[in-house]
Fold these 2 entries.
Entry 1:
Amino acid sequence: MVISKLKIYDTLKKETLLFNPIHPGYVGMYVCGPTVYSNAHLGNCRTYISFDIMFRYLLHLGYKVRYVRNITDAGHLEGDRDEGDDKFAKKAKLEQLEPMEIVQRYTVDFHQVLAQFNTLPPSIEPTATGHIIEQIEMARKIIANGYAYENNGTIYFDVEKYAKEYPYTQLSGRNLDELLTNTRELDGQEEKKGRLDFALWIKAKPETLMRWPSPWGEGFPGWHIECSAMSSKYLGSEFDIHGGGMDLVPTHHTNEIAQNFACHQTNPAKFWVHTNMLTVNGQKMSKSLGNSFLPDELFSGSHPLLDKGYSPMTVRFFMLQAHYRSTLDFSNEALQASEKGFIRLMKATKLIDGLKVKDATTIDLEGLTASVYQALNDDFNTPVTIAQLFEGVRLINLLNDDKETINAEDKLALKKLFTEIVFEVLGLKEENVAGSEKIDGLMDVILSIRQEAKAKKDFSTSDFIRDRLKTIGFEINDGKDSTSYLTL
RNA sequence: GGAGCCGUGGCCGAGCGGCUAGGCAAAGCUCUGCAAAAGCUUCUACAGCAGUUCGAAUCUGCUCGGCUCCUCCA
């Protein structure tokens, strides 16, 4: 195991602290997953790619990680008014489908999209509908502990009572009094005692499609309770990392912490980790603003704001060139720059195997390795990690041009560094893998014909071959005594 | 209205008291039949104003501009 001095920023304490797992060698991580009532857009993907990096790096450091990411497939209301249809029922009525057909469709879509971005599947992916009993049980405990009350079949969390004993607004940094006075007056909330109270369990109306029996009659769970119930079930009442998008801080995660304290008297997570938003022209990408990109529109280039399509790995690389806690602006120019940079990185990575071995090493491999790990240990700073890798790219190219030398042992270490960081930790992979034996053979034939033409100074033929190959994705590079090709 | 974040060279984006970020683009050079690739070199910036400091992109205050949250949102 690499000696880790990993530091992570905790939203609750508002500082970057040394990470030491609660149980040495083991890490429990919970990330709020998607509500599967529509297609995942790129902003959603950014969050899950960010947590994928954390998952991968923790695994790389040798931890046994249990990564739990839920699927919200019930109980998420439109407008959080604690009444009316949930998002699935609404969409189901619209499309004349069963709510669970909606859930299935978008769960499959979510998995396909994330697989294209080469994210690892979580260890456990629990659903809200599969944990109704746990949610009811948790609501009962919170009632028994005195922090929730029933009104006509609906259970509300008593925020004002809770806030007298616990720092309810600690995560968001808000002032409770201002929240109480500034919160908007919403319709249909006269059943609540306090205006900040939120529902743990909601009574079903006659037309409600998704409903379950409970001690308080038929109903369905509130949104926030599912994460509290499922994280407690699979990771215990205290675990290492709880993550999600920054937009979950003021409501969802604030309420989750409140539920956990009210039930278990504990803050569930040692580190609260939040990813920043993906923006388009400076504005948050979101469905309601109508500026969201679907991954497929990006890959194919069919979105009106794009000049061309970009591959999943280009997009992943693009996202990793910004830190997860910064906003990242999405544009053609930025994507194009990333595309070229990514190709350069992959080309150099492929060159390592063919480097000539000498007696001595003239590059500072130790320094390079140390700076790469230093960057990753600094709150998963992938942009700096990549900057260091490009220093390595320069060195690889110098080695390839015989301007520096490397011995056998260091060549292995260089190979290990690039393989582990580029592929395992950053989760990048080669695309357009051609290199089959038949293609190699075919290219040998074509290149030898071109070589003959060059020898006869028939440059129009040799250039024709080179240009045509370029248009179909083969880059021809004439070396001193040999010619190589790369697939782009 | 309240809470908070941000404004870095042509573009993207790190840094967060002194030390080269990096990628892309542009220019020059080396190499080459010409290219490409690669290497080297150049462009050395921190919204504005004032202050703290031996020293500020980095700390403080104000101004301007943008964004997020307070309503579902990753």
Entry 2:
Amino acid sequence: MKERKKETILMTSLKLFSKNGFHATTIPNIAKEMKMSVGNIYNYFPSKNNLAKCAIKFSSSILASTLRKINNKNLTSKEKIYEFTKSYYEIIEISPEIIEYFLRVYLSNRSMFDDENDKGFDLAKDFVDEVERLLSDGINKQELKKQNFYVSFSIFIGALGGLTFLNGEKALEEKPIQYAKEISESIYNALKI
Amino acid sequence: MKERKKETILMTSLKLFSKNGFHATTIPNIAKEMKMSVGNIYNYFPSKNNLAKCAIKFSSSILASTLRKINNKNLTSKEKIYEFTKSYYEIIEISPEIIEYFLRVYLSNRSMFDDENDKGFDLAKDFVDEVERLLSDGINKQELKKQNFYVSFSIFIGALGGLTFLNGEKALEEKPIQYAKEISESIYNALKI
Amino acid sequence: MKERKKETILMTSLKLFSKNGFHATTIPNIAKEMKMSVGNIYNYFPSKNNLAKCAIKFSSSILASTLRKINNKNLTSKEKIYEFTKSYYEIIEISPEIIEYFLRVYLSNRSMFDDENDKGFDLAKDFVDEVERLLSDGINKQELKKQNFYVSFSIFIGALGGLTFLNGEKALEEKPIQYAKEISESIYNALKI
Amino acid sequence: MKERKKETILMTSLKLFSKNGFHATTIPNIAKEMKMSVGNIYNYFPSKNNLAKCAIKFSSSILASTLRKINNKNLTSKEKIYEFTKSYYEIIEISPEIIEYFLRVYLSNRSMFDDENDKGFDLAKDFVDEVERLLSDGINKQELKKQNFYVSFSIFIGALGGLTFLNGEKALEEKPIQYAKEISESIYNALKI
DNA sequence: TATGAATGAGGCTTCATTCAT
DNA sequence: TATGAATGAAGCCTCATTCAT
């Protein structure tokens, strides 16, 4: 149950951080949202920074496991890209904070996450590894073009993030998921052999 | 000369904001970097928020004019995409702050930029308009696929930004510009008819 | 057994207070050191302040009884001074907290110990009384000079404390007890007729 | 004038620290006492700890220079001890905080003053050096007994401090300075050949 | 225009103490 | 008795902004 409450705090923080940004979210904000006292949060997390770091780990692990499940299916690369794109925008619909968090907090506070234990980007390593698996698998199956991993990664994840950004800007006319088919096809075209 | 000094302040702020983030950059930091007094900055910009907003306008105008020049050339869409990709990563090499600023400041502080006068994303309208011009021009010339603008925008700008992110993470082995050819081809493949 | 546990808490507090100071020692610190719960400490002592006050009483009573035993012996004043000096530095070697406590906690938090019941210094009254007994006894036996009690007290106890201070500063080359002979002789010379 | 204000802050802090102890004195307390804003104090001293450390340096330098002047006079050791005792209790009468500070703050927060730059006790080095000069000078002139420096230091400074303590406890019937003659004679007797 | 000292609200964090179990 | 999660007041410190010079 202690673990349970820790997770609740994490989810609430994730939500507020992703809605308002790291600096604009105060510990009292989080406490109030949870109807919990300020001090008690510190019984679960030693600092606001640590809370933000755990949130990164948490949300990147969701993305990683989502993609892992897809990678484990017996699908073509094209299908996998589509499946992940769909899942990604489903997450945005249900728990937008999981993805928004990267844009709002991680991107702009990277240095905050660097310390002797974690190397910043490593926090998302599991997810990056799964992307690599998807890509190298497609290359092996001669479905995808053999090209620099960073380029493919940028195309794939950059495109997904780009639409997320536009969604956050309220620039889209439809919900992101409506664009899933179209965007995943474009991504596929960029990566295919 | 007043205009001249205003611009110096802007450039310095842009540099510091993009290096350290908006909240981690203080007005005294900026003043010190310029060997100017804190108070005097307020003779040129009414607030720190306003400074950040002007910085957005400034840096998006650079991107916009860069792309405008390319659009005005007599080139195929493929060439234009390549040209802009190159320019984009050249900017990153010479003045990374112009691009980093979006990642560090704009993305995570959007609400800050919303007020009665500016609608946030509108700050980058000029640039978005040029992207649209590039794309619709390609469609007209039957070089690019006719598809939802937001999807194409996400692919194009998302991919460029994705690599910038990886560069910021020190995840790349080469300078971003080394990937320009490869990434612009992928983008083209994603968008072509 | 309740009394027994109470004493254990007291000893632990005394140790931590004297090692780290009153404010730097928290109730959770004490609880953890004892493998006891925070709340349970409050079943034995009503407050942290009270704990500190009891610790003073406890440690001054040790000094008082040590000196009382010496006073009850059939010794010259010179011998008594030497005996007490030795005992004092033995205590420092075995349980430095008993003496350090005065320096770390009592001296700098006197006001804390003043309330309607106790008058601060009175906490050490037993000990002060024994010092007085030693001195007046020496005067009666025409061994010690008849002089103002506070002056003699300052010389005697001040000198012992001075060396304790230097020991705490790690300024001494030997253990305090090595200086016992020399220092007690000096004290005697200061007080003798 | 900036230096002047810095000194005023120092004196005020010294006064409050010595009256109430380090932890019981808050920065707002100090600010209020000076009719100054909290933030402004930080324009002069980077932290509360640093303020306390500067106060140590300041007050030990006063003691050091007082004793240095006496050492430079052509006096017997007995006279020097008397002179310094008098000065010491004069300081207590006029600016008790200078001496009380050691008892209230330094003694009980030593570890606070230890860092890579200052070694705690070194803060008082100037003063300790002057005491050594007084003593070795007396030994050379065959007025004082050749004995361990730490022992003599403890007798001399311990005795002075002992009476200060009693004064702080309001245990004395007269002002400390009334005891100067008597106490300096006892000290001399302890140290003489 | 330029300076930089001054202000004070507000954020993070700590910890004595309580209380439900 | 014993536990330890929960409370919330209070402290240190930062920094955007102002203003007297």
